[in-house]
Design a protein that fits this description.
With about 80 residues, the protein is mostly helical. It has a domain of about 40 residues. It is about 65% helix and about 0% strand. It is built from three helices and no strands. The chain starts with 9 loop residues before the first helix and ends in a 14-residue tail after the last helix.
Length: about 80
C-alpha cells in the first residue's frame, strides 16, 4: 500500500472526518473511497470520449432507420 501526503482545505478535512465517524470507518478508508470514485469518474468520461470519436453518424442513421415508426407500447410513453 502506498502512503500519499496531501494538503486539503480545512473544511474538506472536517467533512471527511465527520463522514468517517458517521460510517464508523477510518479517515484513510473515506479518502481512499473518495479518490477511487473520482478517478473512476474521470476514466468513464475518457472512455466515453474515445467511444464517441469512433462513432460515425451515418451508422447511427442506418440503425435508427430500422426502428419501426409505431406508437409506443402502453406504459412506455414519454411523460
Amino acid at each position: 500500500m502506498t502512503t500519499i501526503h496531501a494538503k486539503v482545505p480545512d473544511y474538506l478535512a472536517k467533512l471527511a472526518t465527520e463522514a468517517a465517524a458517521k460510517e464508523q470507518t477510518s479517515l484513510d478508508q473515506i479518502v481512499a473511497l473518495a479518490l477511487s470514485a473520482q478517478v473512476s469518474a474521470w476514466q468513464v468520461r475518457e472512455d466515453v470520449g474515445i467511444r464517441a470519436q469512433r462513432g460515425r453518424p451515418e451508422v447511427l442513421r442506418d440503425i435508427l432507420a430500422k426502428v419501426p415508426d409505431v406508437p409506443p407500447v402502453p406504459g412506455d410513453e414519454l411523460r
